[in-house]
Amino acid sequence: MKYIQQSLLSIGVLLSGCSVNSSCEPQDRIKQSIEKEYAEVIVVFQKGVTREEAEKDIASKNMRVLTYYQTISKRTQKPMFHLASDFPLEQTLQVLQADPLIYSASANHEQHLYKER
């Protein structure tokens, strides 16, 4: 367990752009790279909706596909996407949850780990 914790700390330092001997805080660098100007959501479409239909529906809402989860989509027969929207998160979720083609929509909270409240 101690080895895993040390490895994660090392990875955090490497990703932050800081060296082990420097005085910069890794959290500061990670915070800057995580904060984005758009909302990120995970969306699962209803069973039977094709990928093409889902992508047209996404485009009609002025949202962008960041990732299409091909393996899980094929196994569940429900297209699953990681999306970006230029609208606030709450508004994005309202629009997606009102769509009858969408099975579920939830926030990708990872982007808010270090955001000040």
Care to describe what's here?
It is a single chain. With 117 residues, this protein is α+β, with helices and mostly antiparallel strands. It contains 5 helices and 4 strands, in the order ααβαβαβαβ. Strands 2-3-1-4 form a 4-stranded antiparallel β-sheet. 15% of the residues are buried.
Search tags:
four-stranded antiparallel sheet, 5 helices, alpha+beta
Architecture blueprint of SSEs:
Elements: H1 2-16, H2 26-34, E1 39-45, H3 51-60, E2 63-68, H4 70-76, E3 80-85, H5 89-97, E4 102-107
Give the spatial strand order of the biggest sheet. Answer: 2-3-1-4
Poorly predicted tracts of residues: 1-34, 111-115
The major pleated sheet works out as: 4 strands, antiparallel
Write the H/E string, N to C.
Answer: HHEHEHEHE
Helical residue percent band: 40-55%
Gap between N and C termini: 32 Å
Number of helical runs?
5
Find the count of extended strands (DSSP E, 2+ residues).
4
**Beta strand %:** 15-25%
Average of the residue pLDDT scores: 76
Quick recap:
With 117 residues, the chain is of the alpha+beta class. The chain has helices spanning 2-16, 26-34, 51-60, 70-76, 89-97; strands at 39-45, 63-68, 80-85, 102-107.
